[in-house]
Amino acid sequence: MFYESRSDGACPVVGHLKFKDDPKMQEWLDHSYRKVTCQVSDEEFEAAKEAADEWVVITENSLSNQEVALAFKPRGEYPDFFKKLRLFGAEFDFQ
Q1: Residues linked to residue 69 through DSSP beta bridges, in sequence order
Q2: Of 22, 58, 59, 86, which one's alpha carbon is 20 to 30 angstroms from that of 9?
């Protein structure tokens, strides 16, 4: 997920590098590889850190190392919180 105010939508590989040795990551790579990118407000970004465990924050050097994205370890099902977030680039709010 990306901050709506701080990102151009470039998809980092940081999540893959962080969790590459985890069996869940390998299972995801072998059988699913489903990805979802969400665009979130500052409040949603912070709430996401509490809604699920095992994530990594991505910072941007050109923005004085501000947090710009979170990558979450693949899992079978995400908490309901994530199902209400806007897809990155979506022009419609489906909430």
Answers
A1: 2, 58
A2: 22
